[in-house]
Amino acid sequence: MSARHCAELEARLLRYVQIDTTSDVTASTTPSTAAQLEFQKLLAAELTTLGATEVHLDAHGFLYASLPPTISHTAPRLALLAHVDTVAGVGDGPIKPRVHRNYDGAPILFPDDPLLLLLPEIHPALRTRLGHDIITASGGTLLGADGKAGVAILMTLAHHLLTHPDLPHGELRLCFTPDEEIGTGIHHIDLARLAADVAYTLDGGEVGEIAYETFSGDRATVTIAGVTERAGRGKERLVNALTLAERIVALLPNVLQQPEGGAVCEGYIHLDRVEGAAGVCTLHFSLRDFEDDRLAQYGRTLAAICAAVQQSEPRARITCTITPEVRNMRHRLQQDMRPVAYAIDAIRSLGIAPLSPPVCGITDGAQLTALGVPTPNLFTGMQAIHSPLEWISVQDMALAVAVLIELVQRWAAAAPLASPCQPC
Ligand SMILES: [Zn+2]
After folding, report:
1. What is the pLDDT of residues 92-118, one digit of tens each?
2. Domain layout of the chain by residue ranges
3. How much is the pTM?
4. Catalytic pick from 8, 133, 146, 180?
5. Is 170 exposed, middle or buried (0-12, 13-18, 19+ CB in 10 A)?
6. Residue 364 a catalytic site member
7. 405-419 pLDDT, tens per residue?
8. How many CB atoms lie within 10 A of CB 252?
9. Backbone torsions φ then ψ of 216, nearest 5 degrees
10. Could you give the CA distance from residue 189 to residue 177 in angstroms, rounded to a whole number?
11. What is the largest CA-CA distance in the chain?
12. What number does CATH give the domain 216-325?
């Protein structure tokens, strides 16, 4: 790991996190906030200065760039992605990053919130970072290492590769994406412009992480049409759709209802949203599980509950529609495990133990994989994300750069990938 990478990573992260790029779940545009577009313009200018080619920022706020190949033969086309937005809802005001140089193992304090403490006893990963340079926020906000660490890592990698043409790699595509935190950005990616056979997102946590197991997901829409009568006229004839909705939710198996309640990563049926009134209402559910057969069972359970409530109230009209969303990334990767195997090999070559924790969610990479571009998720080193305690070690970020340098060289010598599956 070079000290030069550490200095550059630190400088980039400190600069990037101070630029607000919070995404906004209530917006109907992509990007959801103009600030993300402004940040992308800055990255575009920096990439051009570094010598990247085909730098292109599109109307949806996706920034694409190329690092020209340093080999003469054809190799699989590799893309590396990071998201530029940060999650809303953790404090207000500007992010004021702080560097805890040569960390000594003591509790870390936050000047803007005296009650906040980052304790090695509670965050044991800190104990193994003695001597590292740790970056945190100042107490009032999150740090924004999720996803600015990924951005800083890719920019530093680009700088390194563009100044080391002796390192063999095929054409590398970089892509900086908006609105990952609100789940809407990736739908607007331009796959033709991405032009990749395989990709990695830089959005993982602990050093050594290479994640390729994600939830399979379906959407369920339950529409209930009741019978409305003007108040005071037909108490007998009133069939309140909201009452029936309540009954459906109450009949859901308890164990499947509370994804936020359990510490373990298990499947669920989650009521996301209710729309409507006593006459007609619609319930929107997310169904999630690692295993497709269990996911299908959740759909059947919900449909059976709707049918039972329908039977108990024939005057209402209840429909239940299940729409497939995305499937566990592992299913596609099993056809050709090299995207995982090369990453594990690159991680091991640096003396790091690889970790593959299942991701209890649907990542941008899972959606790209479903579109035919296998995209596992690699570590950035970020810790305690989405909280004011968020922290990252500069040296851990440098390990991510070192892994990527190893990884691009492995792909330079790789045979073509198996042709992509049909969109899953
Ligand atoms: Zn992220």
Report:
1. 889 999 999 999 999 999 999 999 999
2. 3-213+329-412, 216-325
3. 0.87
4. 180
5. buried
6. no
7. 999 999 999 988 876
8. 18
9. -80, 145
10. 8
11. 84
12. 3.30.70.360
